[in-house]
Amino acid sequence: MKIAAIDIGSNAARMQISSVLHDKKKISFKKVEYVRFALRLGMDVFNTGKISYESEARIKKLLMAYRLLMELHEVDAYMICATSAMREAENGTNIVERIKNELGMEIHLIDGEKEAELINNVIIAVLENDKTYLHIDVGGGSTELNIYKGRTKIAAKSFKIGSVRLLEHKEAPDVWRKMRTWIDETVPTHENVIAVGTGGNISKLFNMIENKAAGGKATLAELEQKRDYINEFSLEDRINMLQLNADRADVIVPASDIYISVMKWAGANEIVVPDLGLKDGILLLVYETLMNEED
After folding, report:
1. Which of 17, 113, 146, 245 lies in disulfide reach of 156, CB 3.0 to 4.6 Å?
2. H or E stretch including 266?
3. Crossing angle for the helix pair 220-231 and 252-266, nearest 10 degrees?
4. Counting runs of H as helices and runs of E as strands, what totals does the chain give?
5. In this predicted model, what pLDDT tens digit does every residue of 59-106 receive, in sequence order?
6. What are phi and psi of 22, to 5 degrees?
């Protein structure tokens, strides 16, 4: 069986096709295809409130390309989810309707809570029962914060702040204060909180740290040091010398600022960065839906 997940974010759109593997009663997903394309919908939406005609045309071309790849891989089922930029766009629902009518592909506009829930379903597998975690997921347009006692989520909040929003200076003036207040009031200060980071920017930053702390974790100091190092380079040098993708080079520092600020406010000195995200949560939902249909 092969299934696919398409995540249309504010910065990029990703598609992952995976084989479903069965090992006794345990199932896992083996990646067979992964494609990422920088649509940059947030640039449109956070500046003008809507998705431009040119961006809509690119969405359609990309989805047609994704559909061809899924046909070649003989995918059994797939799901498309769109997050912050498309759900906030004035013409987002109209574009979703046109794509369904023209391409026969359904896009689900999910809110921050649903986005956090889908990621939660795959994140809990890497958490330990006796520890307290603060999960930070920074996208192009929003940041989802989730607090766990072991594998149980005890609090969650979505904030309209993300890497593309910061880059375009379109975040609400009081969003930093609101985020800090929520952390001050919600995170257990008497406990040793470990941060869990998901999102393309924290994965890249994490991988760029050469000598990580024991146990595959990075310290807050290491994140700050690497963020400051990247910040010293011009955009052109980040692309040519640090070999960052163009759509990563300009947002990695703003995104890092969010992770670092949240960790400081929560008193988290270490961060774990599993190779998991929204696409993995979508894959799990696709699989569970297929199994329920068979039953």
Report:
1. 146
2. helix 252-266
3. 150
4. 13, 11
5. 999 999 999 999 999 999 999 999 999 999 999 999 999 999 999 999
6. -115, 120
